[in-house]
Amino acid sequence: MTEERTVVPLLEPRDGIPPVVEDAASLARVVEAFGAGTGPVAVDAERASGYRYGNRAYLVQLRRAGAGSALIDPIACPDLSGLDEAVSGAEIVLHAASQDLACLLEVGFRPRDMFDTELAGRLLGYERVGLGTMVETVLGLRLEKGHSAADWSTRPLPEDWLRYAALDVEVLVELRDVLHDELVESGKLEWAREEFAAVLNTPPPVPRSDPWRRTSGIHKVRNMRALAIVRELWTMRDRIARESDLAPGRVLPDSAIVTAALEVPRTKKALTEISAFTGRSARRHMSDWLAAVSRARGLPESQLPQPSTPGDGPPPANRWADRDPAAAKRLAAARAVVAALADEHRMPTENLLQPDAVRRLTWEPPEEVTDDTVTARLRGLGAREWQLSLTAHPLAKALSRLETKGEL
């Protein structure tokens, strides 16, 4: 019988909860300490997603050997460029880095070299890669994760939240060290380095020209006049949310926007009969909502939004069999290849090769399918060199086999 591993609760930071850095003098001392520290720097950030407008950081946590831990209030200290410069030569350790890099960049902190413990866990085949689970599985320590969805814009921050935040970076470097050794042993370290660099070098997303089209439930809206109501209500909500620094969904839920577009209320009374408009914040702006609906109702036909146009990518895969049966066969073959390789190398298929790259390759394959043309096509779609070395030849072989058999 296998002996169960003892899991030790991690209840307190080893040096206690550090005071929150809220002024220039305190920040200067942190900068000096971390600049003089050694080794990697563990970093985490807490946001107020679902509470505040945008995804800015409301607390930044760091830990480094020789410097200890620090908790920085980036609202009181919005410029961390001095700290960034002080640790510019160090490896920055993050968990799920893509979630934190943007808000860190907003305050002037941009890693040059990075280790992402979540991404390392994926490449190593860990089934669950949340920070708490990884710390427990790899280090035998249990983190309390009860405040991950808290409103971190709260001031002052409660002591138990600060304890939680400090513990998030307490053993992050230790986790990094074990995962680093496992990457070396499995021959995946260079793969991980390519992935970390790709995350660091990913450009910020281009703002959508029609962000209102992402309203949840908009697929129920079938005509252009109703789409205009969605657009006007979404735009009004966004303005109010930005001015109030509230998450848009706290001002007015998407369900209210869609229902109003379908029912076209003409009076405040009609609005109040829509249950989603009965929330306290929504009631406060009844005149604004009614004005938005009225504007949409009064627009000339020429100013109504058109149905969304297809993007530049392939259609949803469930439509391929009808739209292009040959492409559907190519996609099925390619997915089978990627799934087998992912299983062989013990990682999720989406980490072995991006699903969008697989779809685009099989929807519009090279005119002549060879190892070189498939490699070039995948490289142009963002595949990394380690991914190409594993997938390009098997994919080219599978696609060529379909052509040779005349199945296309």
From TrEMBL:
Residue span of region Disordered: 300-322
Q: Which domain of life is it from?
A: Bacteria
**Any Pfam family the entry gives:** DNA_pol_A_exoN
Q: Which residues does UniProt call coiled coil?
A: none
- What residue range is the signal peptide? none
- Residue ranges of the HRDC domain? 223-303
Q: Which PANTHER family match?
A: RIBONUCLEASE D
Task: Give the protein name, as stated in the record.
Answer: HRDC domain-containing protein
In its UniProt entry, the species of origin is given as Nonomuraea guangzhouensis
